């Protein structure tokens, strides 16, 4: 936890707390003597929280402004839908919907979908005459568990990147990591594979390196990174009951780490998270 500020003005602190909570910040207020202290539960939100605090100082009436999140919080399942949408952007949603649609098509016409979307029709020739095939395998999932796992992480990681850096950066990462993962997987194992896993590991590597040793909205807890790395390592053993595109995972991770170094050096302006 990080202490953001302290104040003796209980009314002002209450309004600030309400405003930050409306914006989705994980904060709480404690008493220490005559002082009220505002604490942030997750350090990855520090930059965004400080921006919101400064906005509130400039305009304290923000706390009184009705926000959609509060209106929907009392509407049962609609509040969850609104919260999920808040955690994503248009590209995050479009890719997730396309993956769902393609999964449905795979259940009905598996051979047709595979022939249409796999990286190549051959085992020894990349599709330079059909360049879209370099990326289309990321939309194909062959089991429900695989689909759910990948969409969850795509939404969690891709949504944060899109909201923090913008749609252009997420699109660049999708193409760069997706193509790298697909090509390496193809070279090692042939064309019959699919899934967003390589991209997911690319986004993980990107967030990891981009936020390494500094607070940004893309910071990931060390436990999460360790879990995903262990899952990658386990994929190379015989412990799993499913076929795993190990080379795609590793290629995606390495390409994402490289992108993290490059974008960190370029230092684009981070967007304000609402």
UniProtKB/TrEMBL annotation:
<keyword id="KW-0812">Transmembrane</keyword>
<feature type="transmembrane region" description="Helical">
    <location>
        <begin position="194"/>
        <end position="212"/>
    </location>
</feature>
<feature type="transmembrane region" description="Helical">
    <location>
        <begin position="248"/>
        <end position="266"/>
    </location>
</feature>
<comment type="similarity">
    <text>Belongs to the peptidase S54 family.</text>
</comment>
<keyword id="KW-0378">Hydrolase</keyword>
<dbReference type="Pfam" id="PF01694">
    <property type="entry name" value="Rhomboid"/>
</dbReference>
<dbReference type="InterPro" id="IPR022732">
    <property type="entry name" value="Peptidase_S54_GlpG_N"/>
</dbReference>
<dbReference type="GO" id="GO:0006508">
    <property type="term" value="P:proteolysis"/>
</dbReference>
<feature type="transmembrane region" description="Helical">
    <location>
        <begin position="134"/>
        <end position="157"/>
    </location>
</feature>
<feature type="transmembrane region" description="Helical">
    <location>
        <begin position="169"/>
        <end position="188"/>
    </location>
</feature>
<protein>
    <submittedName>
        <fullName>Rhomboid family intramembrane serine protease</fullName>
        <ecNumber>3.4.21.105</ecNumber>
    </submittedName>
</protein>
<dbReference type="InterPro" id="IPR038236">
    <property type="entry name" value="GlpG_N_sf"/>
</dbReference>
<feature type="domain" description="Peptidase S54 rhomboid">
    <location>
        <begin position="129"/>
        <end position="264"/>
    </location>
</feature>
<dbReference type="Pfam" id="PF12122">
    <property type="entry name" value="Rhomboid_N"/>
</dbReference>
<keyword id="KW-0472">Membrane</keyword>
<dbReference type="GO" id="GO:0016020">
    <property type="term" value="C:membrane"/>
</dbReference>
<dbReference type="InterPro" id="IPR050925">
    <property type="entry name" value="Rhomboid_protease_S54"/>
</dbReference>
<feature type="domain" description="Peptidase S54 GlpG peptidase N-terminal">
    <location>
        <begin position="1"/>
        <end position="85"/>
    </location>
</feature>
<feature type="transmembrane region" description="Helical">
    <location>
        <begin position="90"/>
        <end position="109"/>
    </location>
</feature>
<keyword id="KW-0645">Protease</keyword>
<dbReference type="GO" id="GO:0004252">
    <property type="term" value="F:serine-type endopeptidase activity"/>
</dbReference>
<dbReference type="InterPro" id="IPR022764">
    <property type="entry name" value="Peptidase_S54_rhomboid_dom"/>
</dbReference>
<keyword id="KW-1133">Transmembrane helix</keyword>
<dbReference type="InterPro" id="IPR035952">
    <property type="entry name" value="Rhomboid-like_sf"/>
</dbReference>
């Amino acid at each position: 936890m990080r202490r953001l500020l302290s104040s003796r003005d209980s009314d002002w602190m209450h309004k600030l707390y309400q405003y930050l909570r409306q914006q989705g910040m994980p904060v709480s207020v404690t008493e220490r003597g005559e002082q009220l202290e505002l604490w942030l539960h997750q350090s990855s939100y520090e930059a965004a929280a400080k921006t919101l605090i400064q906005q509130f100082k400039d305009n304290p009436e923000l706390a009184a402004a009705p926000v959609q999140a509060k209106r929907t919080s009392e509407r049962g399942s609609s509040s969850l839908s609104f919260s999920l949408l808040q955690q994503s952007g248009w590209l995050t949603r479009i890719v997730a919907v396309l993956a769902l649609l393609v999964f449905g098509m795979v259940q009905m016409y598996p051979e047709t979908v595979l022939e249409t979307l796999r990286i190549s029709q051959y085992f020894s020739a990349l599709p330079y005459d059909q360049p879209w095939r370099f990326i289309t395998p990321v939309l194909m999932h062959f089991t429900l568990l695989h689909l759910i796992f990948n969409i969850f992480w795509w939404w969690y990681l891709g949504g944060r990147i899109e909201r923090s850096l913008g749609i252009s950066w997420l699109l660049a990462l999708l193409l760069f990591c997706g193509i790298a993962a697909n090509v390496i997987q193809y070279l090692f194992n042939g064309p019959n594979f699919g899934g967003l896993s390589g991209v997911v590991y690319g986004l993980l590597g990107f967030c990891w390196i981009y936020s390494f040793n500094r607070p940004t909205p893309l910071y990931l807890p060390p436990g999460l990174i360790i879990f995903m790395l262990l899952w990658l390592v386990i994929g190379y053993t015989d412990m799993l009951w499913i076929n795993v595109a190990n080379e795609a995972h590793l290629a995606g991770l390495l390409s994402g780490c490289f992108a993290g170094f490059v974008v960190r050096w370029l230092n684009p302006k981070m967007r304000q998270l609402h």
